[in-house]
Every structure is written in C-alpha cells, then in structure tokens.
Amino acid sequence: MCLAPLSxxxxxxxxxxxxxxxxxxxxxxxxxxGQHNGNGTPGNGDVLHKIEQMEExxxxxxxxxxxxxxxxxxxxxxxxxxxxxxKVLAHLQAAERGLRRAIAARERAGLxxxxxxxxxxxxxxxxxxxxxxxxQAIVVALEATRSTK
Length: 149
Hints:
By secondary structure, the protein is an all-alpha fold. It is built from seven helices and no strands.
C-alpha cells in the first residue's frame, strides 16, 4: 500500500483552505469562462490557462485521463472548440472537488477502510484514479463506510 502520493495531495489542501487561491479563481471564473469578449471572439485564453493549472491540482493521471476522455487530446492547447474547453474545465473542477471529498472521507473512515476500498478497485493509491466514475465510486464507498460506523 503506497500512501506517500496521498500526502502530496493532502499537502496541497492548505493552499485552498487559505481562501486566497479560491477567491482568485472565483473572481477570475465569474467573468469570461466560455463567453464572448467585446471583440466577438471567445475568451479561450482564460479557460485554457485554468485547464493547464488544474494539472497540478488533480494530478497528472487524472488530468490526462480527463483530457483524453472528454476532448480526445493530450495537450489542452489542441482543443479548438471553446465549448469543449469549458466542458474539460468543468470536469477538472469536478475532479478537484471529488478529490477533496475523498481525502476528507478517508480521514473520517480511516486508512484501513480506505485501503480496502482501493484494493477492491485494484488500486494502491488515489493518484492512480484517472476518471470521475472511479473517483465517485471511491467517495461513495468511503462515505458509506463512515456512516455505518
């Protein structure tokens, strides 16, 4: 069982908890994501930049998995359609929320339950998850374990 990569994910949490990063993202995201700017061209630069920033937040495997499954590309700069860029960003943000929920549920359920759930999915670390469906299954199982205690 390899829990070292999870500590890296946990180490990122205080940055979000401080409110500074979240406030910056919220104010930047409320203006132009997926909408048109004054020149009639999509504001894709903001969305593309946010997508690229999410690699560090959700981890390389989840990032690549969502890019591949949602946009069928390896590099976000290859996404030409603004609607698909917005969709990829939404999936990455959902992954970020899911990872936070998984970490919180892991702390409540305990490492033994967490390891058992990962083992049942043939995973040894949360960093091996590359899609939202598997992440959701982990979160639901962890939260169910916690509620039965």
